[in-house]
Amino acid sequence: MDEAGLQAALAQLAQDHERTRRGVAELQQQFETLIEIMIAFGTLRPGHADLIAKLRQRVEIARRAPVELSSVEDKHTVTGEPIDCESRLSLCQARCCSFTVQLSRQDLEEGELTWEIDQPYRLPRLADGYCVNLDRGEGGCQRYEHRPATCRSYSCRSDKRVWLDFDARIPAPMPPTLIALDRLTRRDR
Ligand code: SF4
Ligand code: SF4
User: Fold this and answer.
1) Which H/E stretch holds residue 145?
2) Is residue 148 one of the residues assigned to a domain?
3) 85 lines ligand 2 (CB under 6 A)
4) Quick check: 120 and 67 in contact, CB under 8 A?
């Protein structure tokens, strides 16, 4: 993507964000009106006030969706510990590629990676819980040359989400939200 394309994408993102912000504000207004009507009719019970306060808090958090951006300046200089991924895939199920990864300004400028529209700028995950860039058949990263700094520096050796014992090759239990990719046979990382 060239600079003009990147600017157009950012402008579109800003427009989408503004539309979402206005939509949430409108919903909040409707919600407040509904609460006032319910209070007027006496349909709220003791304890409902706490629930309403929590809902208001959630709406406020949603309105302030933070932008997450990695501060790594040049990911192409980032390296990590070599891991024998290929021989471990049947055990780890590539679960490192289900973790949250933030993009950097460099990633955005290169324009080679997509991000979650409503969670800028995280790598998108699909319904199976894995990063959009994971090759579901082979287990490799389909954007290997462009992968973010976090993916380049990550080592699962001491990550208790992945291994109960790395050296003994004993994996931690799979998270219930993640679909195991048993068909993975090869992964270059
Ligand atoms: S880095 Fe990822 S794919 Fe490689 S062994 Fe660790 S969890 Fe598995
Ligand atoms: S970009 Fe590649 S290495 Fe990084 S999480 Fe996604 S599939 Fe895994």
Assistant:
1) none
2) yes
3) no
4) yes
Flag whether pLDDT at 184 surpasses 60.
no
pTM: 0.67
pLDDT reading at 133 higher than 60: yes
Number of domains in the chain: 2
Domain assignment present for 189: no
Residue 69 lies in a domain: no
Is residue 97 domain-resident? yes
Nearest atom of ligand 2 to the alpha carbon of 98: 5
Segments in 41-92 forming alpha helices (H): 48-63, 85-92
Structure tokens at 95: 């679960």
Kindly state if the Cβ of 103 falls inside 6 Å of ligand 2. Answer: no
**How long is the chain?**
189
Are 80 and 166 contained in the same domain?
Answer: yes
> Looking at residue 42, what is its pLDDT?
80
Full residue range of the structural domain in which residue 36 is found: 3-63
Q: What is the pLDDT of residues 53-95, one digit of tens each?
A: 777 777 666 666 678 899 999 999 999 999 999 999 999 999 9
Distance of CA 133 from the midpoint of ligand 2 (Å): 6
Q: Which ligand is nearest to the CA of 148?
A: 2
Looking at the fold, whether 94 and 144 belong to one and the same domain comes out as yes
